[in-house]
């Protein structure tokens, strides 16, 4: 039997390679530290008493810790309503975006599609040029979507780059599978549903993750199209707290002094950031394997 060759024997790194690897590890470690420290600061600050955080900074003394910030957030109607609105907008936007993107990408991947070149030119033109904010607002208003959830879900649901990415992915799938299915009598829709979609999970999950994250972090569209505060997403509520330093009356009692108001607002800021990040932190571990594979496939193709 042939003796197995040790992997380390096949890879003989020179001194220059080892030096570059060491520098790479140091740089990546610094990047991790730079990214992690602010997150840890916000996480620890969300559990600290506001007066301790403002006067002494971070403290690891258990006597200085409290969950009052989270209690006030879950008791406040505007933040919880904004949280539920953000989930509705993000999920609705993701479903519409992924559905339209996959259907358009698969259609453009078919070689004998009638008018294929015209559609490609149209999509490429729309990717580089758009009407602008004011014409878009006029169109949304003329459709009666202003001050409704559809004003957040529908505009921008179709990303041209995502369509090109899915089209490239679909064209890379073996044509023999589709030809064999046609011989067995399958229609184009059944081929798409039974063969193409199961093989396209990586790219679908990548597009879904990007769509969800983009919509979850968005607040500009809500500023333009929504006037009813009950429809505000969480990010717009957080904007009022973080930038405008506004706190709803239900969060604190009216008899508190202004200094106490500022301390409570500071504590609510950090707690709100953690609450707003929870869905993304929960989703990513489930999407990670598809995310890595989908990104690599899209980059190679």
Explain this structure to me?
- It holds the Pfam family BPD_transp_1.
- It is found in: Cell membrane.
- There is one protein chain.
- The chain has 2 domains: 14-64, no CATH class; 71-300, MetI-like (MetI-like fold), CATH 1.10.3720.10.
- 72% of the residues lie in helices and 0% in strands.
- The chain has 15 helices and no strands.
- It has helices spanning 7-10, 15-45, 50-55, 68-75, 77-109, 116-128, 133-142, 150-153, 160-171, 175-183, 188-199, 201-216, 220-225, 234-242, 258-300.
- The protein is globular and about 75 Å long.
- It starts with 6 loop residues before the first helix and ends with a helix.
Sequence-ordered SSE layout with sheet pairings:
Blueprint: H1 7-10, H2 15-45, H3 50-55, H4 68-75, H5 77-109, H6 116-128, H7 133-142, H8 150-153, H9 160-171, H10 175-183, H11 188-199, H12 201-216, H13 220-225, H14 234-242, H15 258-300
Essential attributes:
301 residues, mainly alpha, MetI-like fold, 15 helices
Measured between the Cα atoms of the first and last residue, the distance is: 40 Å
CATH class term of the largest domain: Mainly Alpha
Sequence of secondary-structure elements: HHHHHHHHHHHHHHH
Structural class: mainly alpha
**What is the CATH homologous superfamily assignment of the largest domain?**
MetI-like
Give me the count of strands: 0
Gross morphology is globular
Using only C-alpha atoms, the radius of gyration works out to 25 Å
As for the CATH topology of the largest domain, it is MetI-like fold
Major sheet description: none
Please, how many domains?
2
Q: What CATH architecture label of the largest domain applies?
A: Orthogonal Bundle
